[in-house]
Structures
1.
Amino acid sequence: MTPRHAVGPAVTRHTGATTPASAAPSHAAAALPDPSAQAAAERFLQALDARGSSPNTIRSYRTGLEAYLAWLAANGHDWRSPTRNVLRSYLAALSEGRGRRTVGQRLAAMRSFYRFATRQGLTPGNPLTAVATPRQPRRLPAVLSVAQTESLIAAASGWRSGTTATPAAHADLAEALSLRDVAIVETAYAAGLRIGELASLTVGSIDLKRGEVRVTGKGRKQRVSLLGRPARAAVAEYLDAGRPLLAARAGEGSQGRQRSTAYEAVNVLFLNYLGGPLGVRGMRYRLERLRLIAGLPDGVSPHTLRHSFATHLLDGGADLRVVQELLGHESLATTQIYTHVSPARLRAAYTASHPRAKLSQVGRQGGSARTPEGGSSSEPGGSADAGPGD
């Protein structure tokens, strides 16, 4: 891997934000990390790339290491063996103006770096073993209802019903883009894909006859997810009537752009209006516009479709391990969070397990319900088949 920016030259951009004024000398902004620290950091980042880590992970780890090594250099500490007090001082400076999640991410980058450096014999040990990771707040993922998901799909296909005003000269292009957007939403929801996985799909990764999609996820690990009948129909219609029109637009414009765009878009499934690959930013922009058209609440993102996919599967009775496989989670614990946002699954488990939820009500029309002790209850709150939310 040839890094876009070396650790050293970029350090000065982060020093002022991570070094407290009281702890750093006046010339701290000009301090650069030890050359050995820069070399170790670059070797570590190259190892991440060789291991198949995502570009976002590498970029995040680079940012964290730049700031950490700059702070050590500015305060005169050796990066190979920082003391516990030094690390605590850095974490205190890092916590100023940053959330616990950001601090945890920076700390994870430092831990991984020192594990690598220890294995390579660059440091005598991992100085972060005695430093605790800040406890992260547990937040349940937001999900869409089935009706909200359908409204998002309807917003993408607005040209069919005439709800989207389009000049006649651009009607064909608008139709192609609408077919593409419907296929994007249907595929994301049917297969539970991450936005990066969705953008990297190729024409060859879709098997419409079998209803399968081959996905390359985190760590370049491949898995097979499934497409339901509506998603297969949407992708087939896009491939037949939408993608050819978009691909043909790659021939418009300058000759240089024509060659590069056509080359990039040969196998990419989803194309932009110029015939080039539709990237992650373009997909986020399109889905945000569809959210506004559909009248969905703020905070709905492409990842919300993935959350909805998992939750709706569990609501329908799918096994948790099947959902784990479809999502591509390494640990079942990661998938288990969706059991907390699946009301139907929780209600079914409650009804099947709680003794007061399994009682049969004899007289719904004013009668009484038998209790386990042989008595009866006719109070409004004592209905034997009342659910947890009643």
Note: The chain has 17 helices and five strands.
2.
Amino acid sequence: MALPKSAKTLIIGAGIHGLSTAYHLALNLKARGKGDGRDILIIDKTAIAAGASGIACGVVRNNYFQPAMRELMAQCVEVWESDMEAYSYHPVGYMQISPESMHADVGTIAKQQKEIGYESTFIEGEKDSMDYMKDLFHDWQAQGITSVLHEKKGGYSNNTKAMYGLAGKAEAEGVRIMTGVEVTGFDRDNGSEAVRAVKTSKGDIQCDQLVVAPGPWAKQMWDMLGLQKTVSIKGADGKMHDDIPMWIYWSLQEGTLGVDPEMQKTNDGKMPPVIHVDSDAPLYSDHDGSLITDEMWGIYYKPDFHFNGIQGGAAPFAIDTPPDDVAVDPYGVDSPDFVVGEDFAHMWVSALAHCQKRFEGQMVHYNSEPSGGIGSFTPDSFPVFDRFVDNVYMIADSNHGYKMIGVGKLVAQELCGETSALLEPFRFSRYAEGKLHPVSSSPFPWS
């Protein structure tokens, strides 16, 4: 297919956000009698799901301390449920298992889930929490757990299958997807801030409307658009904090234990919920008994036939390299710098054994193939969904991306002139206005 010279709506990025926006925009245009999918072009410098969407663990959850995130995630779960086959979605549920230091936070989440009609069960107290977990897994043995929040909705999706399923739905509506097309710059209209055309490795593409959905490449696109490198943030103290870097990178820690996925079935023989454990109990090596950490730690895991094992991860860590010097490419498993190593495998498998006896002595089965990647994070680690330079809509997800399939549906509505209340808390202006999201006690920056 020859590169089109123009498109009414041009979308950069063939990951979860770009594909979802294109598909839902095509439906909106058709329903409103204002066009259809043939008015939409997606470009990606590599391939469908070549970025974070292609290596994502695929967990879908509502469990967030921030009310705005919970409401948005409830909407996203509805989209996952709308076509579970195409999205390769498994609605097995999700469990947040926590120590006393997180008890109050998780209690708040449970209360507000009830208020928005999101079904969950909240268990409190060390004995009741242990009993509840042993009713699911006879070998549960994690100590110091004083609350369990069991979301009955949510679960996980097989990432690559879901992305190609979503791409197929978009193409069925007439959307064009062109890969191997790298963005090299933007042409601005002399009379305004609008982007008149996108410069690419294959030629220029004129556009009326531009959607930038770049995932880990958010900073590169942000810089190409000439947007500010630092921000001023009004803190909880009422004071302005200036010169805060707009972007920071975090290294994502995920991997697979190469055992039979059915090893993790529940006591009644069913596939289990996704398990997320945060703990302040000392974590000891399942290999030699040495102390790994006596500080707060967290892991998540699930059986996954797509990964052919028990797949999951641990809390990421901030990359100290100045953002301008971080090499995002090559991305994911091809990166020489940002793949998980032996330290992660040792910690994660030991943590699995800390939680369930069935994982003791399983370190030898850890899949040593490269895994992991990096994420591009905003100053508060929450997304920015907003318009910039007149006709540019930026979807900067701060690594919440894959589970947020519903964002594309809401962005599509906004592109058609219908403002979304669910996206309002994620505008760029929140930094200067001090309308920040509350911070939880979780060791994960995105919870």
Note: Residues 1-90+155-241+381-447 form a domain with the FAD/NAD(P)-binding domain fold (CATH 3.50.50.60).
3.
Amino acid sequence: MATRKKASPKTFKAAYEILKTNANTLQNQTEPDIDNLMTTVEQSIDAYKVCQARIEAIQQALNAAFSEDNLATERDDLEDKE
């Protein structure tokens, strides 16, 4: 019987839970479950991509926010000196 691939997670939290669950399952196996290994790997790859994309988006947003904040602070400092 073929195992059906689950839909990709949509949130960081859901993707992270999949990664934790799959890691724990793989670590605690006394024998590798070869029949489900590809499904586990594919789910983990999909979950990793979701996490990576979310982290990168947050990092870009933070960088933009701090850049705007730094520009505003520098502008204020220049105005105060005048």
Note: The CA atoms of residues 12 and 22 lie 15 Å apart.
4.
Amino acid sequence: MKNSQLYLIITQLGTIEHRSLGQFVRSPYHNRRPELITFCNLLIKSAQTKDQVPNTREYYFGKIFPGQAYDDKKMRYTISFLNKLVKDFLAIEQLKEDQISAQRLVAKAFKKKGLSNIYEKEIQNCLKLLEKKPFRNPQYYLDRYLIGYEDYELFYKSKKSSGKIEEILPKLNQSADIYMIATTLKLGCSWFSFRLKEQPKQYQLLLQKILDLVEDQEAYRQVPVVELYYYAYRMLTITQDDSYFKNFKHLIEQHQSAFPVEELSELYVLAINHCIKQANVGNRIYLEELFDIYKKGLDAEVFLNNGEMSSVTYINIAQSGLTQKAYDWVRTFIEDNKIFLKSSLRNEYYLFNLATYYNKIGNYDEVMEILRTITFDETMLELAARRMLLKIYFELNETDALFSFFDSFKNYIYRHKEVGYYKNNYLNLIKYAKKLTDINPRDQKAVARLTEEITQTQAVAEKAWLLEQMRKLER
């Protein structure tokens, strides 16, 4: 049972949802099978207490149908009935959160019953509810279309008022157009940003037509959601023109209240990824832009998901601030945002960021105090910490500690298979750091040969740092 879909769903529900599900299953309107009440209660108890009872179909059958011989067919039907009931419960819970869809369906029900006067009142309430919401994202235009279509269907079928149809159709057309244009542009960004295989030709053709339409018709560019996704797509595809990024960044700031936080977060991620790519090809001004976007994203709370910040984001924001030498800001960020990390990861990532901060300001004693007392469970974090220590030992000329560290670092790499692709990068870092330590600076030919060897080797961690140390030896 523990591997069944039904059990998995119930384990993912919270305590309040468990209570609501129990009430739902007990309601005779939704369920007239008393055995499902018993079955549901047993599964909820098992999910909440992580019961160590034999979690088999036979065990549950004995509890649901005491005194009866096990009947696999009957048990499978029981599981199927409860599974459907749980899905119905989840659908209703989702509808509670989507007030606009719920209100539209109420209006639709009155329309079906021929209660046109009540329908008119309810559909107007639905429109008012939609317009009260601040969001003007693609979903807004889809909802506006669906609400408008209820009116269109009513008056089209009644054939009583062609004037009403003339009033409805332009609004319906506008909502459908904006939804389709914005969504097509948004999906174009997704194909590109996720580095998927080339977009199928039919989608490329539609996307190109829409791009041409948006550029030709100024009216569409005056709709924020279209304008935003248009500049996002152009930013991603025409990287040599900085104006697309600047316009996109400006529009995010100007219209961020028009998007729910989940979608706003996606827009910020597009801008962040673009800045990183541009910085990686040598456009250093984008490092400053990246830090600015991170700060604005923090203000807009787009980096929190259900009250949690991902550990990767926590590190990336700190690194971005350190690159810009915003040391006081970074220290405050590290302290203020550690509470948003998942509790199981909090201490590791907090200490790693703290060590990185101390390293950047040159307080090597604090760095070594932190890194000597902790081994990170996360392999990539441990590798980054060891890179940091290697450079500190070298900079402080602690030769004995450095040579001992070379061996322990190499052993760690060979022990941890998950290093995978990066194995040669780190082994080459150790190899060239050793050669750098051993080299005679008076032998300029040897210095030149080693510099050339490091330059020509592709897989080397901290390559820029190694070459910087070599330049110090050149005369």
Note: The CA atoms of residues 16 and 107 lie 30 Å apart.
